[in-house]
Amino acid sequence: MTELWTNWAGDQRCAPSTVERPRSEQQLIGAVLRAVARGEAVRAVGSGHSFTDCACTDGVLIDMSGMQRVLSVDQASGRATVEGGIKLDALGSQLARHGLALENQGDIDRQSIAGAIATATHGTGARLANLSAQIVGLRLVTASGDVMELSGESDHDAFLAARVSLGALGVVSAVTIQCVPLYTLRRRDVPAPLSDTLAGVEEQAEDNDHFEFFVFPYTQIALTRRMRRGAELPTPPPGWKRYLQEELIENWALGLTCRLGRGLPRAVPRLNRLLAGTMSVSEVSDRAYKVYATVRRVRFTEMEYAIPRARASAAVERVLALVERRRLPILFPLEVRFSAPDDALLSPAHARETCYVAVHQFQGMEYEAFFRGVEEIMDGYGGRPHWGKRHYQSAATLRERYPQWDRFQAIRDRLDPGGTFANDYTRRVLGPVSPDAAVDR
Length: 441
Prior knowledge:
By secondary structure, the protein is α+β, with helices and mostly antiparallel strands.
């Protein structure tokens, strides 16, 4: 019987002809070569946390969960080499044993490292780039079965393409990460008037190591989150206190409210105001990898756009106005974060100071009207979609938004001329491998 695969949100599924579960690079190479010999397409998957059909295939699905080892750590240089399937939560704790940490990361740590960089996963911090920018080398298994060792010194163009590749160039078997000394994060959450938050958003982004904020539609209160990095020993809160905040308030209460709103959509504005009323000042001090990530038990789907940082306030105001004007039942807050520019060819933050605006909808509720409306707003700012989150763009609409688009396509044609690593998603957002070389798999 064909094995059915679904993503984390449960809204993307496929029935691959074969699921391969390699436990070493050599086994990975064998899986790729067997697929190529049969003329089948190949897609690799980590934790399935993408909201798009990025991992879906009718061909061979390579489950990387068996490749999660730390291969080497050099404390002197701060570099660690790990297998591509390692999950971020496991990586954080293992690096900490060596006195090291990731420079920055997002607020979900269930992704694999290879999947996270392939889709340009990011955290927040106006002076800090996304996760892929921390990669200084990687091993890429191509359709020929060859292993390319890519870095800034070895095939520089291919390295810049492979750092954010949507899995379209090959399968990343291992990455080398430039880490930083282990540090503590002090996080302070403070509710504030939305008008004040928007008026000072650029200053807040610049003045804090990490800054982000959340705002529920139909309310005028933002929950601001500031994080300061330091070398001091952590003073984590009692377990019961963190359980109360993360499990009961951020998950149980949110989940209950979302279920009520799904059944009574007209009540959503009042429910959002109720949720906003539960926001209060809170502080956490702990090792960074324990502070960045939050527990996400309420299932949802998501869209996120990267826009020029200077347009952050205007974009947020327009999205909130869209919800109110159309009376849309949106129960999740907007999430607004920031990132430094980077040089990966297909990074949404490529060569510009970036603001990310993320919108969500609760599982089982209509989202397309909202997401399409948000996308139209973001189009006006030259918005680039997060590759792992829902959007309605195509290669034709995206090409002009990436200055190095043609450079990436040349690398793709060179590394995967037969389209072995293509699927419906890559054909839609990247186009065929080349006008006369694409294979419809």
